């Protein structure tokens, strides 16, 4: 269109899209009427006939509809006014994108295709295509891409796109999260696409590259978990996945995402570890121990070797939890685990059974000479001795020194069992025998003993007895040595068996403590004792009544409320009730003990220190405790009239009680000579078989009615 003049002149005419008589006049008769006739109307697209000077000669109805003009109004208008061409000169045989400007100021995106025609006069035929839908699609695609990018750049993962261009591996896009996850920037990877392989952990690199190439060749979806080395040198775990999303000119386009799964891997590792280990101590657990024991048995069978299984139970561990708290208990268990490790060989296995119980496996032991069913027992017992020595050192718990002991049971393969269950069961039975006979010692399983079955049966029966409250209280009189009359009774529990037999407390109280049943039993004792005292009081019998608190009961929550609640329910005066606590219990945690005893005493309950002389009381502590009665243990009373050393100790205890304004009470008096010694040395109260054995409640009124319970001396 060079004939139209300069671009500046043309630009000045495009500001007005109205009719131009001058333009129209200059174009009249310049084009063959045949061309400008039905030819344009027959064209299915908007079509225009434009002269070489850029004026529209004619247009069909579709072109008129697009421009918002009538067909007749198109003639004579400058093409550039309706369809801006910019700096472009129309030469024919070309296409370009522009807009259609309507008289109302609106614009429509169009594609213009121009072709030159030859006739009586040369001109251009222009076909116009509305590209609104295409433009909207492009805009929508751009908007979608922007939204997608905004989305992927918010998630906690690396999103990337890559392809091949010839022999070059090209990263087309990578989200900025790569810097947070790997420490590298997106531009670093884009500039050097193969650097990714260098960032993979050396031990995983080959497998990742091989799988990547395989899936790339087959177009399968790719997914792998592997380790990568961050820019700062830290190793992380990632999950890398990609799929084929497009194929351009024979080259596939891959879209991928990389998640940091380090925390998940650590959690999985933790779960796998905890499946076979104890979380607190890090030791193998019971399941892992049994698996290792099974393998040790197979190895022992092949090589004619022996095995030792040790079962350790800490003595009075519940006292640690109750007195110092569970945190201190946990600290102690961790320290015990460490001491057990140091006491065994590197090839031995130390495991935690649960609670305060530990297991040790001594494998590949030499058989005892000349035997076919035993092993050399010296090695397991030597380990048990080393463990006892290790536990003898005090434990520092929250700034306090705590002494602990453990009872150990030992079973030997093949003598005591041929499978893990039997060996563990028999080691457990031997441990219980050690705890019963010599607490803090060890015992080797005795096949002739029926202790395992007895203990299992006793445990089952004891739980049933707690559920059914199969108990009865017997009462032992407390005598005033001045005149022999009964001033009170001590309530002593008996287990009433279905066959009518009575089981003494020494046979089941230790097991009840171990099984955690003692609190339920103790609550029943207090309730029944209060009921009986109320019944005697209603019958005119006024007796002071005492009962024992176990260590576990003493540290239980809301102790005073529970005792007073049961006394109140029966209408019993707390001043007529004596609570007995052993000397060793009071000294285990003296500050806490004193606080509890002060609370009980403040509510009117009288207090007694039981088994005095068997513990390690601090006289300074004892002085400040609100104790009313000091009970001298029977171990000092027996033969006190014959043993000068015992006599001196008992005199000192009586004088100590008197100086602390406590009432001395001697336990276990069985002879007249013991009675005479105690009375002559100022002991005020006593109890024992010499005066009366523990009896059912029905026999107490008759004993109380007697003038005294001191037997007449025998002559001869």
Walk me through the structure:
- This protein is α+β, with helices and mostly antiparallel strands and 716 residues long.
- Helices cover 43% and strands 25% of the residues.
- It has 30 helices and 27 strands.
- The strands form 5 sheets. The protein has an 8-stranded mixed β-barrel.
- β9 (235-248) and β10 (251-260) form a beta hairpin.
- α15 (317-324) runs antiparallel to α16.
- The chain is elongated.
Q: What structural class do the secondary elements suggest?
A: alpha+beta
Taking the sheet with the most strands, its summary is: 8 strands, mixed, barrel
What is the overall number of helices? 30
Number of strand elements: 27
Strand order of the largest sheet: 18-19-21-22-23-24-25-26
What's the rounded overall pLDDT mean? 82
- Could you state the oligomeric state of the chains shown? single chain
Classify the beta-strand content into a percent band.
Answer: 15-25%
Rounded to an integer in angstroms, the radius of gyration calculated over CA atoms is 51 Å
Task: Give start-end ranges of low-pLDDT stretches.
Answer: 1-31, 370-374
Spatial shape: elongated
Name the helicity range.
40-55%
Termini gap: 159 Å
What is the gist of this entry?
Helices cover 43% and strands 25% of the residues. It is built from 30 helices and 27 strands.
List key phrases describing it.
716 residues, 8-stranded mixed β-barrel, alpha+beta, 43% helix, disordered N terminus
Task: Explain the layout of strands and helices.
Blueprint: H1 7-13, H2 21-27, H3 33-36, H4 38-41, E1 47-51, E2 56-59, H5 61-67, H6 71-74, H7 79-82, E3 94-101, E4 107-117, E5 123-130, H8 132-152, E6 157-165, E7 168-174, H9 177-182, H10 186-191, H11 195-199, H12 202-218, E8 222-229, E9 235-248, E10 251-260, H13 262-276, H14 286-303, E11 306-314, H15 317-324, H16 326-343, E12 349-354, E13 357-365, H17 378-392, E14 395-397, E15 400-402, E16 406-413, H18 420-437, E17 442-444, H19 451-468, E18 471-480, E19 486-496, E20 502-503, H20 505-515, H21 518-538, E21 544-548, H22 551-554, H23 559-570, E22 577-582, H24 583-588, H25 590-602, E23 606-612, H26 619-624, E24 629-632, H27 634-637, H28 644-659, E25 663-666, H29 672-680, E26 685-686, E27 695-696, H30 700-705
Parallel strand pairs: 16-17, 19-21, 21-22, 22-23, 23-24, 24-25, 25-26
Antiparallel strand pairs: 1-2, 1-5, 3-4, 4-5, 6-7, 6-10, 8-9, 9-10, 11-13, 11-16, 12-13, 14-15, 18-19, 18-26, 18-27, 19-20
């Amino acid at each position: 269109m060079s004939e139209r003049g300069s671009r500046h002149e043309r630009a000045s005419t495009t500001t007005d899209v109205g009719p131009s008589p001058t333009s129209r006049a200059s174009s009249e008769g310049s084009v063959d009427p045949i061309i400008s006739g039905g030819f344009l109307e027959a064209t299915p697209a908007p079509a225009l006939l434009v002269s070489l000077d850029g004026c529209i000669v004619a247009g069909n109805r579709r072109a008129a509809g697009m421009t918002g003009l009538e067909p007749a109004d198109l003639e004579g208008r400058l093409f550039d006014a309706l369809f801006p061409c910019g700096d472009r000169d129309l030469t024919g045989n070309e296409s370009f994108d522009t807009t259609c400007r309507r008289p109302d100021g609106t614009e429509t995106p169009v594609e213009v295709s121009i072709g030159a025609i030859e006739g009586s006069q040369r001109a251009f035929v222009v076909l116009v295509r509305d590209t609104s839908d295409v433009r909207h699609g492009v805009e929508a695609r751009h908007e979608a891409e922007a939204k997608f990018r905004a989305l992927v750049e918010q998630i906690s993962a690396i999103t990337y796109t890559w392809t091949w261009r010839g022999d070059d591996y090209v990263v087309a896009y990578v989200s900025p999260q790569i810097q947070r996850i790997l420490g590298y920037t997106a531009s670093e990877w884009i500039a050097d696409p193969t650097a990714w392989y260098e960032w993979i952990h050396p031990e995983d690199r080959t497998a990742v590259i091989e799988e990547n190439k395989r899936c790339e060749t087959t177009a399968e979806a790719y997914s792998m978990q592997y380790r990568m080395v961050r820019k700062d040198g830290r190793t992380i775990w990632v999950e890398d996945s990609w799929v084929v999303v497009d194929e351009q000119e024979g080259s596939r386009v891959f879209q991928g995402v990389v998640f940091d799964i380090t925390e998940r891997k650590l959690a999985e590792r933790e779960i796998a570890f905890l499946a076979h280990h104890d979380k607190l101590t890090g030791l193998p657990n019971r399941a892992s121990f049994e698996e290792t024991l099974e393998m040790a048995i197979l190895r022992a069978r092949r090589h004619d070797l022996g095995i030792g299984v040790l079962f350790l139970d800490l003595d009075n561990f519940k006292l640690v939890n109750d007195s110092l708290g569970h945190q201190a208990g946990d600290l102690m268990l961790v320290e015990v685990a460490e001491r057990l490790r140091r006491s065994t060989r590197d090839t031995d296995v130390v495991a935690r059974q649960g609670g305060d119980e530990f297991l040790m496996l001594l494998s590949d032991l030499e058989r005892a000479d000349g035997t076919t069913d035993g092993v050399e027992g010296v090695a397991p017992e030597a380990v048990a001795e080393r463990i006892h020595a290790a536990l003898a050192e005090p434990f520092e718990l929250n700034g306090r020194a705590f002494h602990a002991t453990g009872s150990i049971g030992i079973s030997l393969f093949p003598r005591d069992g041929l499978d893990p269950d039997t060996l563990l069961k028999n080691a457990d039975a031997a441990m219980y025998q050690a705890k019963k006979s010599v607490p803090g010692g060890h015992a080797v399983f005795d096949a002739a003993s029926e202790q395992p079955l007895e203990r299992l049966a006793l445990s089952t029966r004891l739980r049933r007895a707690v559920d059914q409250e199969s108990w009865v209280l017997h009462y032992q009189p407390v005598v005033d040595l001045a005149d022999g009359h009964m001033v009170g009774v001590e309530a002593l529990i008996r287990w009433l068996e279905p066959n009518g037999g009575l089981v003494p407390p020494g046979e089941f109280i230790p097991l009840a403590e171990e099984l955690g049943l003692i609190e339920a039993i103790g609550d029943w004792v207090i309730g029944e004792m209060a009921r009986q005292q109320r019944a005697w009081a209603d019958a005119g019998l006024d007796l002071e009544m005492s009962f024992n608190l176990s260590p576990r009961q003493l540290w239980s929550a809301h102790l005073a409320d529970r005792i007073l609640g049961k006394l109140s329910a029966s209408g019993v005066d707390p001043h007529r009730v004596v609570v007995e606590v052993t000397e060793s219990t009071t000294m285990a945690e003296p500050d806490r003990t004193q606080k509890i005893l002060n609370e009980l005493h403040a509510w009117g309950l009288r207090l007694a220190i039981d088994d005095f002389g068997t513990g390690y009381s601090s006289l300074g502590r004892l002085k400040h405790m609100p104790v009313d009665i000091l009970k001298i243990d029977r171990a000092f009373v027996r033969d006190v009239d014959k043993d000068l050393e015992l006599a001196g100790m008992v005199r000192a205890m009586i004088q100590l009680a008197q100086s602390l304004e406590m009432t001395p009470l001697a336990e276990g008096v069985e002879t007249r000579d013991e009675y005479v010694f105690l009375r002559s040395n100022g002991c005020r109260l006593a109890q024992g078989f010499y005066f009366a054995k523990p009896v059912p409640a029905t026999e107490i009124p008759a004993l109380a009615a007697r003038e005294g319970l001191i037997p007449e001396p025998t002559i001869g």
